[in-house]
Write a structure and sequence with these properties.
This protein has three domains: 94 residues, Orthogonal Bundle (Arc Repressor Mutant, subunit A), CATH 1.10.10; 122 residues, D-Maltodextrin-Binding Protein, domain 2 (3-Layer(aba) Sandwich); 93 residues, 3-Layer(aba) Sandwich (D-Maltodextrin-Binding Protein, domain 2), CATH 3.40.190.10. It has a five-stranded mixed β-sheet with strand order 4-3-5-12-6, with helices on both faces. A five-stranded mixed β-sheet has the order 9-8-10-7-11, with helices on one face. With 317 residues, it is α/β, with parallel strands linked by helices. The chain has nine helices and twelve strands. Helix content is 44%, strand content 21%.
């Protein structure tokens, strides 16, 4: 799925009418129907059905719609910020240029609006940002195409670079509430034996960590699918088809019937790190950016903790 498909899906979910949705999106009804059909084909099940001549959402569509608005809002904010940076780039010539590349998932723990909304006009820097797989981040830094890389990883995986710890994180798994593992407060790696699992693929350090942890205990994870599509992975957890990786908790799961469980691992230094080539000196602007990342993470974690308390007491009542 791409962001355009998610936008189309959101409007169809709001209108429950392909004609009205196509008019709002300024595309043909046929093109809209094809986009939704392609999503359904990728997901492996329908998103909408006809009931008494009316379009109705399936349970999968309801789950997706609950999550898609935040994704679209965050991506819209990122697009606006990037457009502003490009305008600055066209008008400014003699400014420090700092390309930064984020590993997929590193941005989940931070508020995009807070991170990218606070621009650096005061320090006269031209920033550029992109998101890559973890392996892609290392390639960008090694080749010199980017000066800073932000990764969720462990020091064992970034020994060839200068690494600055930004914050420590745990590793979390999405577990369906009907899975016996949902009753455990803390999962052990041995709990994953014979458990169907959706992984991120070999280009992501969480995958490498899982492989390493399981290998030390003498077994191979039972992979059903390798995908970077977090919505697809979460959907499989919702249907109790597999476990999948989650992100730093903000209230115990991102969908009804799913629990977010911490996984006890040997790599207790797992967290978010900034990496750079050893030959590159860190500039004051780069240091300010890293300090800003820490600040945004801290503020986002505090607000997530407050949301978790609210959700907990709502469940209690």
């Amino acid at each position: 799925m791409d962001i355009q498909q998610l936008r189309y899906f959101a409007v169809v979910s709001q209108t429950l009418n392909y004609t009205r949705a196509s008019e709002r999106l300024y595309i043909s009804r046929q093109a809209l129907s094809k986009a939704i059909h392609d999503m359904e084909k990728e997901l492996g099940e329908p998103l909408f059905f006809i009931d008494k001549n009316k379009l109705r959402p399936t349970p999968l569509a309801l789950m997706l719609y609950e999550n898609v608005s935040g994704v679209l809002k965050a991506f819209g904010g990122l697009e606006s910020a990037l457009a502003a940076w490009r305008r600055e780039r066209e008008t400014e010539v003699e400014r420090e240029r700092i390309p930064v590349v984020f590993g997929m998932g590193a941005l989940h723990a931070m508020s995009l609006r807070a991170l990218f909304g606070c621009r650096t006009e005061r320090d006269g820097v031209i920033w550029s940002f992109e998101e890559r797989t973890d392996a892609g981040v290392r390639e960008k830094i090694a080749s010199g195409e980017a000066l800073l890389g932000i990764l969720r990883t462990t020091p064992d995986f970034i020994t060839e670079f200068d690494a600055t710890p930004l914050w420590k994180e745990g590793v979390y798994l999405h577990v369906n509430e009907n899975n016996p593992l949902a009753a455990k407060h803390l999962l052990e790696v041995n709990d994953l034996r014979e458990q169907p699992f959706v992984t991120l693929g070999p280009d992501m350090d969480l995958h490498a960590l899982l492989e390493w942890e399981c290998s030390r205990r003498g077994f191979v994870p039972r992979y059903l699918l390798a995908t970077l599509d977090s919505h697809l992975a979460l959907g499989m957890a919702v249907r109790n088809e597999a476990l999948c990786f989650g992100t730093n908790p903000a209230g115990g799961g991102y969908a009804p019937g799913v629990r977010l469980k911490p996984l006890k691992i040997s790599a207790d230094a797992w967290g978010c790190y900034a990496i750079k080539n050893r030959a590159v000196a860190i500039s004051p602007s780069m240091q300010l950016f890293l300090d800003h990342c820490r600040s945004v993470y801290r503020e986002n974690s505090e607000s997530a903790g407050e949301r978790a308390k609210i959700i907990y007491w709502r469940k209690k009542s």
